[in-house]
Amino acid sequence: MSLKMSNLLDVEKYLLLELVYFHLPPEHKNRISREAPMKLDEYIDLVEYCGYSVYPGFISSSANGYQYKKRRQAHFKRIFASSENLDDVVITGYVNDNYGRFGNTTDKNKTSFVGLALADQDNNGAVVFSGCEQMYPSSIVLDWGGCLIASLGVVTSHHHQAMNFYDHYMAGILGERNILGHSKGGNLATYVYINRLDQNTRAYCVNAQPYCWYTMNDTQKEALKTDRFEYIVHQNDPTRKASYVSYISRTAPLNRYASRRFIDIHGFAEVKFDEFGNLEGARVIRETASQLKSRLFHDYAAEKRLTHDECMARFQEKLSEITSLPRLFSTTLDEILLVTEARVAIIWLKDEDDRGPFIYPLIIKSPGAEDLYQLKLRPGQGIAAQSVFEGLPLYIRDSRHYRLPVASLNRVLGLTITSEIAVPLGIDEADVFGALELVNKLDGVFSLEDFALVNEMTLAMLDLFKKSGQSLDSYRDFSLLQIRKGGQRIFAVEKNGFKEKTFGSQTDKNAFLKKISGLSLEPNERLIFNRITFTCDKPEQLKRLRRQEYAVIFEHPQLRQARTRVSTVLMRLLLQLRENRVNLSMVAKMMGLDDKLKTRIIDLSEAEYIRLEYGMARIRRPKLIIVNPPPRGLNPAAYQVMCNRLKKDCQKKAVTVIVLNVDNENNEVKND
């Protein structure tokens, strides 16, 4: 339980960053002090009564605003309940110089500055600064005006307030002193950090308004490129372009189903976290001046290239701070990506099913991570599998001369594999439980020096893993789709699985279908699809998820009686798909209906109609196919032929299938 940056997971840091945007009611905020702190979970319990500064005031206080706050509160509670680090954290200070009833009392100056101070039992402390206000026009002017002049290097009153807030609440903190900030709050955090480098400070900024690079001295510039400072940028976030930036640590891809509005890109809720609570798919950058060169200015500071021994010394120092198994694996991959300049890093685990042994990805550092999590690789399928099943480290300088098939990995990564490194993971040589794999170097191919360094870093990580005595068993999860209520899983289907579920009535079946489609999620329920979490407050994302990843066979039973031509139905489908690689005749031929284009659907035979339904589902290339009960009177034999074909598709890892049946003679719901 610690506020140390080396222990806090990304999801926990994001909680602290977002929480400061929920402004405590006056009757609570004025009671907080270092002598009378408030527990973090008490603050979370008050979120529904807080003002929410990201929305304008009239929305924040509306019924919709209240429901949004309740949903974010439920999200915070889930994180807090599963956290090993936040249980003993208390709020020791709170300042909110905003207009309106959630600001400070009337005798305070209204500057729109907001700060939160925290501490833990080990005498570590943290301060968190919020970004720009949206609740009141006066706050918008103060905040955005401050952002503009801060980008030019002007020290504002907010910077002075942030420094005073830090100095006051970090006085007496003997452990680590951490500074967190988002958006403009990140600008304030950067300013405080570079002016308190002589203290045990670390900073974590997300989508931060950059502090003016050209007003800093060389010591401050170098401090922003060390491990003490993390600057996270969401994919396509425009904020960093407000000034020159040469110190980005990681870029994080957005949830693929998120809308690309500024508030979604810039905010908190649309990035993904892996099973460990770390940013999923985040790319370690530590961008150099040559990679981000300003059109108007040039930074001639050279990046130092570390030797093998210097890399290992730095890595060992980072590992010595880690007590959390999730952070251990994630940090190892981050560091290896950084020193080798690999494009992709994956930790694979070994398992076994009825077809024999296989490996599957546990952690992936790649923007296309969600597609890779579908993979199961058998012996003979790539060097990671070979490394696991033979227990040998492997170095492939040129993958063109390597004979094992890697087509599935090429396809989901969206690139051609040119160079690889794989190192087995195990307690000893006889007990290998997985592998660490690197794919493609950013510029060129992996060298023998890269291979030697990865081997040594992996051994150092494994040594710490063995000493911890911890197990990876709790992180094994093969679900494509699951519904969780509170902390319980109430339904799950495995990736590429074929699952049948029988209901006692059509009403029960329809209720379940709405649930797994995200149409009837309760506030305390989550739909997790391919490791991405959806809640009832994300209707647009759920809609995109269904459109992109779901297909329902027999979704419209009345289609069987339609007098519409087959060609008309298929053309509508192709227009929805915007599919350029196939045309009408190709689709009809694949379905075995090329001579039936002008035939009305009602005139198709039962086998032909089944092929039409199956083909319309598969042509969309969904990850999940849901099979409704067939229309009344449909030949059971033809229906069974389709189900058998879907089973084969699952075995080929082409899709996941849920078959819904209704047993009218039995009123009890049967679960397989």
Automatic annotation (TrEMBL):
InterPro entries: GAF, GAF-like_dom_sf, P-loop_NTPase. Gene3D superfamilies: 3.30.450.40, P-loop containing nucleotide triphosphate hydrolases. Pfam families: GAF_2. Residues 324-457 form the GAF domain. Coiled coil: none annotated. This is GAF domain-containing protein. It comes from Acetobacterium wieringae.
